[in-house]
Amino acid sequence: MKSKTSFLPQGEARPSRCPDNTAFKQQRLPAWKPRLNIATVLSSFFLSGAFCLSVGVCLILSANSVREIQIDYSAQCSECSKLRENSSNWNKECTCSANFTLEEGIPGDVFMYYGLQNFYQNHRRFMMSRSDAQLLGQNAKIPKNCAPFATYRNGTPMAPCGAIANSMFNDTIELFYNSNSSAIPVPLLKTGNCWWTDKNVKFRNPESYNLSSAFAGTARPPYWQKPVYSLDEEDERNNGYLNEDFIIWMRVSAFPMFRNLYRRVRRVRQFADGLPAGNYTFSISYNFPVTKFKGRKHVILSTVVWSGGSSPFLGIAYVVTGSAATLTGFVITAIHLKLRKKKTYFQK
Amino acid sequence: MADPIRWARYRWQRLISAEGGEGSSSSSNSNNKCYQSSKPLGKHRIVIPCLGHFKEEYEKVSKLYMNNKIRTTKYTLLNFLPRNLFEQFHRVANLYFLFLVVLNWVPLVEAFQKEITMLPLVAVLTIIAVKDGLEDYSRYKMDKQINNLVTKVYSRKEKKYIDKRWKNVNVGDFIRLSRNEIIPADMVLLYSTDLDGICYIETAGLDGETNLKQRQVVRGYSEQASEIDPENFSSRIECESPNDDLNRFRGFVEHSNKDRVGLSKENLLLRGCTVRNTEAVVGIVVYAGHETKAMLNNSGPHYKRSKLERKVNSDILWCVLLLILMCLTGAIGHGMWLSRYSEIPFFNIPEPGGKLIPPALAGFNMFWTMIILLQVLIPVSLYVSIEIVKLGQIYLIQNDIDFYHEKTDSTIQCRALNIAEDLGQIQYIFSDKTGTLTENKMVFRRCSIAGQEYCHEENAKRLESYQEVDSEDEASADHQCGSSNDHQCGSSTHVSKCQGHNCTPVNEPLKRKSLNQLLRREDGTGDDSHPGHVAFSSPIETDVVPDTQLLEKFSQFSSDSYQQPEEASSKFSWETMYITDFFLALAICNTVVVSVPNQPRQKMRLASLGRMPIKSLEEIRQMFQRLSVRRQSSSPLPSMKESSSSSSESPTSFVSKLSLFRAKLASPALDGTAQRAADPHHTDSPEHPQVPQAGGVWTLAAGGEHSCVASPQASPPTPRLCYEAESPDEAALVHAARAYKCVLQSRTPEQVTVDLAGLGSLTFQLLHILPFDSLRKRMSVVVRHPLSNSVVVYTKGADSVMMDLLRTAPEGGVNHSEIEQKIKERTQKHLDAYARRGLRTLCIAKKVMSDAEYAEWLNHHFLAETSIDNREALLLESAMRLETGLTLLGATGIEDRLQEGVPDTIQALRRAGVKIWMLTGDKRETAVNIAFACKLLEPDDRIFTLKSESRDACALVMSKILEDIQKNNTAQKSPSQHLGNVCASPSTQAPGFSAGLVIDGRTLEHVLHDSLQNIFLELTEKCRAVVCCQATPLQKSLLVRLVRSKLQAMTLAVGDGANDVSMIQVADIGVGISGQEGMQAVMASDFAISQFRHLRKLLLVHGHWCSTRLTNMVLYYFYKNVAYVNLLFWYQFFCGFSGTSMTDYWILILFNLLFTSVPPILYGVLDKDVPAEILLQLPQLYMISQKSGAYLPSAFWITLLDAFYQSLVCFFVPCFTYYGSDIDILSFGNPINTAALFTILFHLLIECKSLTWIHAAATLGSILLYFVFTLGFGTVCNTHSSPPNPYWVMEKQMADPIFYLVCLLTTCVALLPRYLLRVLQGTLFPSAVLRAKHFDSLSPQERRAASKKWRGDWTGNCRVEFQATSRSSSSAPGVVSEEESTASILPTSEPPFQACSRGQLLTKPSG
Predict the structure, then answer these.
(1) What is the ipTM of this complex?
(2) pLDDT value for A59
(3) Separation in Å, CA A181 to CA A178, A279, A281, B818, B925
(4) Whole-model pTM?
(5) Partner residue opposite A1 with nearest CB, options B527, B1140, B1172
């Protein structure tokens, strides 16, 4: 031993290989171990049960306060739909009307939706067929990702391109209030219906002195009757890509049965407090064919509350969950009482 | 760096040269295995120095060999990317993802954007590549450092040794090394400054052994007085082609005159070793670079595949099946959905050609799209995570302070990185005995000489006192890991030294001795606290208190008595002869290297050689000797009397010395002093000049001074001779001989000097050493006796072989043969008694040869030595020829003490349901006793000994034992049922009674035969312990392999020596103990520990933890992926099975990679289901992880089921909430995704057994990261994202109360069943782990009570276990010896197994 150290440079103490005695390295970190004893278990069940029940009741109450009228007009306008089945009639006008009666008025803000059933807007390849860059006003001439609705055979690009844009919902729906045998058109708001960010960030018209020149050199999508710059000729700011109907359509729906916000009732004159009771008529310019895919079209008038629409599901789910939790709590209490005499480690 | 380029060029050149030259050496690959397989130049290689007359041949031959540049890196800068990728794509998982990426490029089936699919693959590949790259870079740096070391190489141009870098050294170069330099390549030793042509090397760099090894200059060169001149070297060396056997080197040197000189490993200096104690050496390089033995042995870390990994792979197949099912559903669904429409609906986009694809084809395409979409179902990140988690686990194991052993300053080394969790599933442990269970500190306990036993009682007393001090010391060392010991020791040494001097004259032998011990001990601990002290030199081993009786007898010896050897009729004198020879054999028959502390070893030797007076004395003596040999009967010459001491005087002088030695104050006998004064050797004793003068000593009286020298243990400051032995037994024997003043002074290859008290220095001419090997089980030295001048062979070895080699009909006459027969019988009796006490036994024998006999043998031996082929066999045969007709001198008993904590560890492991086998090379009695001492066998066990000569008998015996055990089992079961204890599971470890099986090596051979394997295994399963004695390394590994393959059991092999290497490699987990026998076992092992007792925590705590952690993590990963992917699957029902994802692709991909990856990894590294203390207290908990294998199939399916449920909830709660509303697709996906995140993270929290701040931080961090990312992504991605871009979606959602309500409800409902399950489990059916966990909260007393109750619950029915805990008697050996003696006396014709009578005891104690 000594003979060996004598060869080594003296005073060179080798650091000990002893590991650090720290809590982490020795796995002695203070740990919170959730111990499931009767108090914590029962309180967790009862508390969550009570919470869910109360939230559920609130939700149900608020969902019940929603007033909603839904009219399926694909049946009422069967003539028009037959006409639309033949695509050669694309430029023939066809209007129909649907009547309904409000027993009581709908107070507050009333929203008008169109609803589609069986329309698979969420089909993957359909959904992908769009060009966000084009909608931003860039590269209008070379649309990408838009196959098969990108360009015509002669190379003219479509504006807007893509399958979603091409299939845009193009029925026009107007609402008339029939009071005293005269039909008063209900004033409807076309704007302010879509997301602010969509209107102001995601969608931009190409820069030019006017819209029609901005879209010069492009053509409308094959299913459209009007070019994109005449979607709303009354309001310059609601035209072109910035048209809110278009913007809303371009926001892909999650389900094959969906509704999109179409108009809001403008609260003026007799409609200042919402829709009064009485007879109403929807006048529909029927353009959008749905029979091909066995679809249906609705028009919906509804109010909106903080908890969304009229679907009571969430409230019911909360109530069910709450009661299930409470019930479980009782069952556990029963088991506990029954087994109290038995020595289980759990009781300590 | 230009280095890689140079590398490439270099390799290119090599490649070309290899093509040009006759298919020669280096395939330029750095992989070691390639070298082994390539066969350069047939069998041999020729080494020629690069010098003038050989130049052409040198160019031709030597250039073909590798130079000394090494490269252990796998990659270069250039080939890193392709090669690493190539290796990574060997993994199936990676290939799968590559397939997906490629698939995504097919336009018909693409699901994602092309770049996004590559993301997970790229991430995985990058992580692994970075890891590999870093590892490789550190290797590269090491290589560079090593390659640039400088050494002195002979230059032809400058005609002298010049500095060269290691990498420029070539085969055939001459290298000159000075002391303490590292050897750069394997070279043949041609010159040493040592006069005897010896060079000492330390192989610590190679195998960790710190003792010195001797290497010898090639025969024929050692005689040269001056340094070898490379210019004149005109020989060529032929040797075998490179191989990895460190202990073999064969070849020869062919001189220019065609003379051949054999080369052996004694002539080879290995790369990586250090030259010690030799001023300078010169050698010629024979192997360089990757062809050196050191490099060929360096196989690097090895990878074993753990059981869990295999299980994971099989479960991934289930996932694949599930994936295919889901994709099929999608495909069929899509087909059906399409066929509903008579014409293309305008939300379905036609093919570019405008054609309608038939629904069937569309469905087929959809199948592949779905595979891409649902790819995450196959958890690719799982592999990466498992690797990371294992690294973390290994890190924690390595940092466990409990594995730190202060004395050796070593802690656990995890050499295999990926089998940590297998530690939790061990079912069988195969343990070596020596050095593993025992300390491998050999202590001389007893000896028997000429049939007379000397029990060394005082020595025993001394050892007892050591044990106390030792254990105290160790206990304190365990508690505080600091090195406070050093301080203690420093101060107390000082004190005790003073005391030592003062007390020397005190007339109180006992007290003095204890002080002395204290002193020694302190020295010892002082030594121990430094790493790498000389092996086998702790005080407990070096100090031997001689037996009084023996000492007296020995002292009667004189040279006179030697002169009248065999003819002497008086029993007295021949007994003395025996004793003398015995001690001489102890001192000589070994390979111990002698050195003096603080001095280079060689000086010591030179000093002793340079002592002229002695030399002259020696000459005189030998001269007389030659005269006297011829007339043996004549009386010794008077001059002899003068020079040493007269026969009549010597006893008294010895007695006086003895009295001195015992420190009686009585002044030494005058004549004795005079005699020593006359003897120049004593006054000029070699040690004295080098003594670091430690004050005071030399002021003592002259007589006292001499006695100090003579009896090293009486004089603390005397320089101790350091004995460095290859095995601890040797050291113990040499120390024992020294205690009897037969002191080994020096050893050179030519001679051995022994300082015999009565005679002074005797120098034996060393003719031959036949080293120890495990086949012969003995070693011999052949010396020329300086007094009788005859050739004497001293042999020591295992009694089993030695007894057969004794001469049967000695020429000495009837009288002698009778005596010898008697001695043999009595010695055998003593040997058996020693073995029963657990001592290691050795027989010592000698043989006198005539010169003619010797010459004849020598001829044969030379032939054997110089042959290249078949040399081992020839040498063996030659050794056998020499070692026959021996005369038995006596036997020794050496104790090998049990390591600390071994019995406790074995008991704990046993309670943990691990079966422990002891495989040892020792004899049966020793093995059985150690087994009892370490509680491997309990006193109540029935012990069956399997010992049969033929295979059939063996089969018969085994079936009989089986029958017997079964009978006993049924007999035992009825009372236990009567007591109302119902054995829950009639498991193999808890039969009604316990049996132990003892097998010896010869029987093992039969048992391992194919036909008997099954019955043998059946038998061993019934036995709680198996002891295999006299097992060879090969048999050990065969046993392990047998159990591993036939029983499908997880095996662990633990050992410390080279003989355990094969066993360690074969077992699922190999554990090496870095003990005193070098590092070979450690090098081969997966885990290296310093003490056997560490195995307890390693298995019970870390094994359990690693296993449960990893298992849970793996299950969690399956859960996570299935739960998440199913969300996408459910959505397919609402989008016409078109492969739409309602979540943005980036978020989808990052969900697995980023948002939910850290918490499970932490969970896998840190989760602690039961605290360590409780795991140690209740070893039974180990069975949980052990029995479940990796994890139960039910666990996997329950996990999947839960995943399905949770995904249903996560999808359908938001689905129903939003159905029919004006929600857009990404706004709908957002709450689903968020709820899934919460569910998946909180699920982990429910599963977590212990939550620390790290867990909390990781979970919160993940959630935060998710929100930050989605919010951030929502503000920046207005164009450059995929078509449905998530711009402002998260922002909008977070302003909506419904979003929160949905997330809350979804998370609650999803987690409710799991929570309820855990609640019920924790209350109604608490699992063992939970119950154990509860221990934590108890007070110590409650805990003890509960623990008792627990054990009762657990094993109450299994009475064996109960007894094991209730009766912890350690009196086993005493009792056993009786039983064993009957066994050994039994004639072999009797049934060879012996049922221990103690089996009947079993019926009584069960309360």
Answers:
(1) 0.93
(2) 93
(3) 6, 10, 12, 148, 121
(4) 0.74
(5) B527
